[in-house]
Prior knowledge:
The structure is a single chain. By secondary structure, this protein is α/β, with parallel strands linked by helices. It is built from eight helices and five strands. It has helices at about 10-30, 35-40, 45-50, 50-65, 80-90, 125-140, 150-165, 170-184, and strands spanning about 1-5, 30-35, 70-75, 95-100, 115-120. A five-stranded parallel sheet has the order 2-1-3-4-5, sandwiched between helices. Strand 3, helix 5 (about 80-90) and strand 4 form a beta-alpha-beta unit. It starts with a strand and ends with a helix. GO terms for molecular function: 5-hydroxymethyl-dUMP N-hydrolase activity. InterPro entries: 2'-dNMP_N-hydrolase. One of its GO terms (biological process) is deoxyribonucleoside monophosphate catabolic process. This is 2'-deoxynucleoside 5'-phosphate N-hydrolase 1.
Amino acid sequence: MTVYFTASIAGKKHYLANYQKIIELLEKKGCQVISDHIIKSTEQEVRLETKEERLKFQKKLEVWIASSDFMVVETSFPSISVGYEISLAQHLNKPILILYSEGTPPTLLAHNMDEKVVCEKYSSETLQSLIADFINYVQGAADSRFTFFISSKIASHLEKISRKEKIPKSVYLRQLIEKDMKNH
């Protein structure tokens, strides 16, 4: 499977190790990762590009997104161009995993109702299972995705358990359901 990875080039100062870990985990899952445009570029190089070079790059970017099976985005550092890429992938009906490592989720994406857009907070302990779960979803190995609204009290409880157990909230809920299924 081909995955398009994107993140803020300016954010590399703070999050490069996170970007590299995400790419490494995707590659370990057998994915071909399109990421050089983020990992090998610098802010200075981008600033010095001519208008023609930027337009040529935009065409390549559109081809990469269109040819990918899904997109993974690290959004801990805000970026308008990353937002554009997410929008383009949504327009092309691509599954998108939006990851952030601290703070709150990206405001415009946190409550997106598109079932192909998954927004998750991650840590070094949860990143591998989040990526594995998303790849299973994309491959159709997961039976279905189920989205529902919860109260702020439930959300707070899930967040607390997720941090304490160092597992994604979805994994915790799935474990509860599987445990209940065994008892019935």
